[in-house]
Design goal:
homodimer, alpha+beta, Phosphorylase Kinase, domain 1, 2 domains, six-stranded antiparallel sheet, five-stranded antiparallel sheet, 5 helices, 17 strands, globular, ATP-binding (chains A, B), ATP binding (chains A, B), nucleotide-binding (chains A, B)
Chain lengths: 226, 226
């Protein structure tokens, strides 16, 4: 098994059989010690956050796989803090696909002249390119196609899958009394021709969740699910 | 005739007959004394720039009107530095519709990881919302529709019209030996139901034009046209 990538919150290994093992770390994205899923920096190290993120990811990936959605998830080992996944290649240098149910975060920072903070957005989907240096710039469908990052058909498929996945997660959270404000996903191309699947993780660190008026701290999300 | 708006580069008056008179000023957008059509600040005052912008605008609006494109242009008076136009209402608090033929300016600042500076973009269209405080954030079709700024049909029409208008301007400039890099337009709703037209001005201050490897200073554009 050889390490092929060292990420901010996960390391990536390739196994002998060609599948991939993600090793979760106890680092979370944020700024000045405060968690922010929209941040690029590693802002804090929290004992147990890797295992918690993995446990929540496993929960949602199993839910999605049961619903027939294409994901990279194969199996998880909580003791080892590892997740085995199918091999996938990201689009360009990686895209973040954001689905928004409430106008908060960077959406409200951009469009505050047109909408109240916290207003309903009904699963609006937008994409940013992963680029720490340029702070993950927002990109349109036309620009993604123009730059050869996605085809039109891939964009449409990803947008439709994102809405479906996030609606399922939103509904699941609602059964626990929680409200999903927004969530970011990542997709990749699989080894079969035309195969596109949900990759990365699906934990509290990828979403803003509220319990009534109170923000749910990412590491506390598991206490609501189990 | 009463003044209804004071802009960075133009003042706007309403005439007795309900049409609008734009009075061009000698201010240009830029930063630290250097012209930049993407800037929001008034960066410099140049004697004669109002008249020059008007003369070039008249030239292009007449070209477009002859091609059957809906514009707000009615007449120009170079002595008075005024342009008479049809009444129109901007979308939201105003949109800037950018058509790009070369990857320069904010496009390359955002996507430099994916494209070489100066590469061909073939008339790629994108929209920003006018918001000086937030530096004119980029906005997608979906967000424009979601925020009630444009309908889907209006977006598609504006994108198609933009491409048509800018291709005509690009071809016209080519006959003068000039290359259009990018250009920003503004559209508005007219008084008739469903009427959408090109508004604002169409001068050197709205476009980046090159003569070979040399950038054409906005005020010099008229010397190539007449």
């Amino acid at each position: 098994m050889k390490r092929i990538y060292q990420g901010k919150t996960k390391d990536v290994y390739e196994k002998e059989d060609g599948t991939i093992r993600l090793m979760f770390k106890d680092e979370m994205t944020g700024k000045d010690g405060v968690f922010d899923p929209g941040e690029n920096q590693v802002g804090l190290t929290v004992e147990g956050s890797g295992r918690s993120g993995l446990k929540v990811s496993q929960y949602f990936f199993e839910l999605l796989n049961q619903a027939g959605i294409q994901t990279h998830f194969l199996a998880a080992d909580l003791e080892e803090k590892s997740m085995d996944v199918k091999k996938a290649v990201v689009f360009g240098q990686g895209l973040e696909v954001i689905c928004r149910y409430k106008a908060v975060g960077s959406f409200i920072r951009r469009y505050a002249d047109y909408i109240e903070s916290g207003a309903d957005l009904n699963g609006y989907v937008e994409i940013t390119i992963k680029d720490d240096e340029r702070q993950d710039p927002f990109i349109s469908k036309d620009a993604l196609v123009l730059l050869g990052i996605l085809s039109e058909a891939e964009y449409d498929l990803i947008k439709e899958q994102t809405k479906r996945i996030c609606d399922l997660i939103k509904e699941e959270l609602a059964t626990k009394g929680l409200t999903l404000y927004d969530i970011k996903l990542e997709f990749g191309r699989g080894e079969k021709p035309g195969e596109i699947m949900l990759i990365d993780e699906l934990s509290g660190g990828n979403m803003r969740v509220f319990n009534g008026e109170e923000s749910v701290y990412p590491l506390d999300l598991e206490t609501y699910l189990f």
